[in-house]
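sry for the spam today, last one i promise. struct tokens for design, 190 residues
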């Protein structure tokens, strides 16, 4: 490798990553959280504009997805790349008693959020928000047509935002408020 080719390279992958401090509400308290904006597919969707000039996901959807990822990470649910040999020979050994209260609370929050999103949409939400899969990868793995994952993800993020109390009234095109009816609600007009 020549000296010139070394100089032409960036100083490392970390130098290229865009880090941002974002305010997030965790357990009812605002906290500053350092995120790598280029890492998350949600960050890309929040920055990218659609044909109408609006971001592909709303700020409430983005915040809900990032909050789920934060809890997912705190719950130690992220897959490990290498082995963890620290528990070998110790009394901890991975038993349920070895988890801290914070980890258990984060796991409970993830379970509640996934339950609120529902089984139909939670797989896509977890894949994109927590496992950081791109929409094309999700569509390819499931054999879905192009742009299907974006629609399903949007629906799942809406439910997630509602679960976290981040969503107000949904507003459709032209500023018209939309209303949802659930099976547990009385029928419209009745």
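last one done:
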């Amino acid at each position: 490798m020549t000296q010139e080719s070394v100089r032409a390279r960036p100083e490392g992958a970390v130098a290229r990553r865009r880090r941002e401090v974002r305010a997030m509400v965790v357990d009812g308290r605002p906290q500053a959280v350092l995120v790598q904006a280029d890492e998350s597919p949600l960050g890309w969707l929040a920055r990218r504009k659609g044909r109408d000039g609006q971001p592909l996901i709303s700020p409430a959807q983005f915040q809900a997805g990032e909050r789920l990822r934060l809890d997912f990470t705190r719950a130690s649910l992220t897959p490990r790349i290498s082995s963890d040999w620290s528990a070998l020979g110790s009394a901890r050994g991975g038993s349920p008693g070895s988890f801290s209260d914070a980890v258990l609370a984060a796991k409970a929050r993830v379970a509640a959020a996934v339950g609120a999103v529902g089984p139909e949409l939670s797989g896509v939400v977890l894949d994109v928000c927590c496992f950081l899969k791109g929409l094309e990868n999700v569509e390819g793995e499931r054999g879905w047509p192009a742009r299907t994952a974006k629609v399903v993800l949007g629906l799942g993020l809406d439910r997630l935002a509602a679960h976290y109390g981040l969503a107000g009234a949904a507003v459709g095109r032209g500023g018209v408020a939309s209303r949802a009816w659930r099976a547990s609600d009385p029928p419209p007009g009745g």
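Confidence is low (pLDDT under 50) at residues 1-15, 89-93. ok im logging off now
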